[in-house]
Amino acid sequence: MTKLMMLSAGAVVAAALVAGCSNDKADRTADMEMTNSATTSAAASAPVTSEAHNDADVMFAHHMIPHHQQAVEMSDVLLAKQGIDPRVTELATQIKGAQAPEIAQMQGWLKQWGNPPMPSMSQMPQQGHGDMGHGNMGQGGMGDMPAMQGMVSETDMTALRNAQGAEAAKLYLTHMIAHHEGAITMAQDEIKDGQYPAAVEMARTIVKTQQAEIDTMRQILGSL
């Protein structure tokens, strides 16, 4: 009987030791999870460091966003028409497809740099597209900046909206050539003066692709 009691007591002690070890392991696991969670939260809340940028980069985005927006608008106007030369509609689709994502990318830069996003064309003051770039809108807007190169006036936009067929195609090409030339001028300024690597790279892409599109548009225009 004594031996049986001793065995029972030993079993109870062993069970207690196992339970104690399990509790210690669970406590250590919980502590590790809390530490990892705290580390993850701290990392998530830490400020994201960004590459340096300068005023030329901000100016580039402030100018190029509405400039691109107008190119997309012009392309939408043309693509809504019937009887347009397929070469011109293909080019308009290409221009819209390239510039719409660039608008979103530049808006993202402005947000990252602490600048308010540029409004859409429809949200801008009704002063005429060709007058954009004037006024006094401060750092978040486009005040104290030279007029954007190549912007199409509201009168010319109205003419494009009202034109049909070959006339519409010719107007689109004529205005878009000048529009692209203005974009290239602004992009060259960014290449020369900009600091933010992604913005400078976009500017280089604009110069290359839009010069090629100008050459194509001139060829098409000469054959219409």
From TrEMBL:
<dbReference type="InterPro" id="IPR005183">
    <property type="entry name" value="DUF305_CopM-like"/>
</dbReference>
<feature type="signal peptide">
    <location>
        <begin position="1"/>
        <end position="26"/>
    </location>
</feature>
<keyword id="KW-0732">Signal</keyword>
<protein>
    <submittedName>
        <fullName>DUF305 domain-containing protein</fullName>
    </submittedName>
</protein>
<dbReference type="Pfam" id="PF03713">
    <property type="entry name" value="DUF305"/>
</dbReference>
<feature type="domain" description="DUF305">
    <location>
        <begin position="57"/>
        <end position="221"/>
    </location>
</feature>
<dbReference type="InterPro" id="IPR012347">
    <property type="entry name" value="Ferritin-like"/>
</dbReference>
